[in-house]
Amino acid sequence: MMPHTNHMKRELISPLEVWAVFTSFYIGTRLFISPSIEITGTDAWLSDLVTILPALLFVPLLVLVHRYYPHQSLIISARTAFGRFFGTLFSFFWVWLPLYLGAMVLRFVADFLIAMIYPMVSPGTLNILAISVATYAAWLGPEVIARFALLLLPWLILGLAGMIFLALPLLDVCHLLPLFQASAGDFLRQMLNLGTYPFAEAILLITLLTYTPQQADPKKPVIWAVVTCLIIFALRDFVTIGIFGSGLSAKVLFPFFAVVRAEQLGVYLDRLDVSFVLVWLCFSLIKLTICLFLAARHLAEWAGFPDYRTILPPVTLFVLGFSLLIWRNFLGLSDFLDKIYPIFLLPWAIGYPVLLIIRAKQKQPSG
């Protein structure tokens, strides 16, 4: 019994680490892309804040599934709710989604680095380097992932605070006006876009909550993660529009990175862009690591393997190969996230947890 107890103790994730993991997952690849500026113009930073409404919608779904199916992954909870046959059938989506999301994150990292920093390097080379690091971290387990996220997150917050402080002299208030020019439809479109990517994706993290202490309530850490990320996204768009204006910002491929690379900032800190990219890259690798871990664990449970590490290598190879085929260029990703991804993901991210909750209530003894 003692070895088993020690193992379980090593695998526990504290509420503070839950906040760090969710925040890192939300930030992931979303930090440097700002479709909100293209959609809502000068109102982008306001639309980021308004997105708290749909973003918080997923919190009670996460918490209730975790409460009704304590310490059960998305695969096991599906079998508990719907029986082995239908549960296995329905839960395959949760095997596929982290595979697809991992390939998407990996390709985004490669496309960004090639476009901005290493134009002569092939995507395959960068993908192999990134996925090697992520695979090793996934092999070490969720506790290591959580601790690394908690260690790194304060540095990102401090870096963003420093970036905003240094950018203040460059802001032009005229670029931030007029406000409330975007239509209600534009606000809804932005809320749908940001609410899907990344907040709806976090339904996957129900499986990671199985590593929290039994008495811990994940609601507050997850809510704080949502609030933290939306403030970061709002400040990002506020500074970007204040410096470049909404028109130019909407045309730049990675507008916030353009802020980081602004020549005036070099007066204060040489090669600030490289330092900040390293921090951002770590967050993207954390999201990739989470995707690899969840894909391997879900597939292991779905197919009946005793340990997710057994199938982590083939999962890694699949994500690596798929990342090279997933889209032709970054513009293809942007179009997919805006027009297709919400239709593809939201029915599962909302409907599936709701069905699990309904089934759990139906199975409760009456009276």
Largest sheet: none
| Approximate strand percentage | under 5%
In total, the number of domains comes to 1
Q: Output the radius of gyration.
A: 21 Å
The SSE order reads HHHHHHHHHHHHHHHHH
Instruction: Label the CATH architecture.
Output: Up-down Bundle
CATH topology: Amino acid/polyamine transporter I
Percentage of residues in helical conformation: over 70%
Please report the distance between the alpha carbons of the first and last residues. Answer: 38 Å
Number of helices in the DSSP assignment = 17
Structural class: mainly alpha
CATH class: Mainly Alpha
Could you give me the name of the CATH homologous superfamily?
A: Amino acid/polyamine transporter I
